Amino acid sequence: MQQREKLQSLLLYTAIILGLLFFLMIALKIWLAPEIAQFSVSTTGKDPFSYLNFVKLGGLGLLSLLSLGGLYFFYWWKKQSILGRHSWYSSLPIVGSLYRQYNCYYLTFNLGLLIESGLEFQQICRLLEQFEEKSLLYHLGHAFSRRLARGENLAQILGYYPFISPELALFFQKGRSKEEIGKDLLAYSKLAYQKLLEKTDQLLAWIQPLLFMVIAIVIICTYLALLLPLYSSLGGLYK
Length: 239
What we know:
By secondary structure, the protein is mainly α. The protein contains 9 helices and no strands. Helices cover 82% and strands 0% of the residues.
């Protein structure tokens, strides 16, 4: 909730600026652009905004390609398993490391609670298989049960999934008691949570500068779209 409130406060100011900029662009399009076009036609006999037709066609083409790419991605994403999707999430640039850190906290905290309560790992897997079928824990419990039945060791199973922190396997290689492993996992989950907050703050710190950069680019493009035809008309007038 704290991170969400911080994100909302960062986006509020930029959202207001983008809204004002949007209304400014509409006003320029409705009132100023026709005056420039009329002035240019009366002096040079040419429409200064004729090049915008090519820009619109290019924009439509780009939008069509993005739409086709989005449909293909959606089709590919629907075909992936839940564990495959989470593996893909963890491989994304920038947010992938944040997602892996979240899973590190999420899994160590839940496993720590269950192991500290005295459950064997096979019992934990059966418990996880009672969760909602769309949840990550359900699919992890089901996958762990099958791999344990094939004789794979726990450290090898944990290292198979890229969204699971490799440090998690180390807790099960010490030969310690379940209660000690549970306490270690809970202690580690606290550190993972603090690191998750730090990563989130670092990511949030980049949001506002990037949005301001987008706003600056839009403003520059808007002025260029209006001033270049005007300079062209003035050049034709002097000739």
